[in-house]
Amino acid sequence: MKFRAKYILSAAALVGFNINVIAEELPDRQQALPSMPKQADHLYLESAPLTDIPEGEFGDKVRLGYQLFVNTQLLRDKNVGNDLNCVNCHLNAGNKANASPLWGAYFAYPAYRKKNDKVNSYEERLQGCFTYSMNGKAPESGSKELVALSAYSYWLGMSGLMRQHNVAGPVPELSDSELVKGAKRDDFILPELISSKMDPNALAQLPGRGYPAVPKAELAYSPERGAEVYQAHCQSCHGQDGQGQMIAGIAALPPLWGAQSYNWGAGMHRIGTAADFIYENMPLGKSVQLTPQQAWDVSSYINSQERPQDPRFKGQVSDTQKQYHQHDGYYGKTVADQVLGSASSANFPKK
Asked: Region (Disordered): which ranges (predicted)?
């Protein structure tokens, strides 16, 4: 069955990463997102309601971070080059357990990342999302955008910990330079009631972090079967052509492939990462409705479609594939008589 002509994909996710400094000599070091296995007795963090964000300068940064997170299109043509918003992959405004919540990520950085072969601060991790998932240009270190997104992430996490451990009072305020570092460091100050029970390593492994791994499927994943899953479970939201839904000029539901979706360098182009996200979180509002086999298959269908070029591309798809794509993905592979990546759309296009 000739695949490309008949298929429509859609995907919704992402994950991207840094960097202005992507060393050309780096080998393929992309790996699946760290996550925590789901357990029935897990107690997930519950952040304070947004109405508890304080007045004043610090609260203003948290509020701006929330606004940029749920409507990242505010940065279109400045830092964003597609129709996605951060919240498309980090559900419930970045607050949903098992949907890569911000509170899980904030306490896990600084951390070493194979993708760029260095220890990344929290703002560097955010920069990567702009470069890959948002197919854009990362805000500069210390910019108001990165400070705001860091402040929102920190506030979600710290307010949740304080509620969980019965710590009264407002969330302690941090300086801009402290906010962008992340919280996995020895000099990060926690209220004593929390630090006496949880060390930095425990905080970096909060239940609900990342996307839990989907169980292995009985059969090897199949884009052909995935097309049928897509039609039955995804098409009504993401469209027959996988381009999502625009309402009054606003991307109400995200495009899953094509020029307005995440690029070939985003973590979501990996079959396993997208399968994890889909199995746990899709269809939107239902969760865990597909079988593991269906999640793997529809992930392969979505990610066997063309999308924006890998920003590390230097002129030859085969070279980029050899250096950065020795994992489960379709970049550089032939689908429907076309090598994926050879007809990719541009990085950071203007709207």
From this structure: 305-327
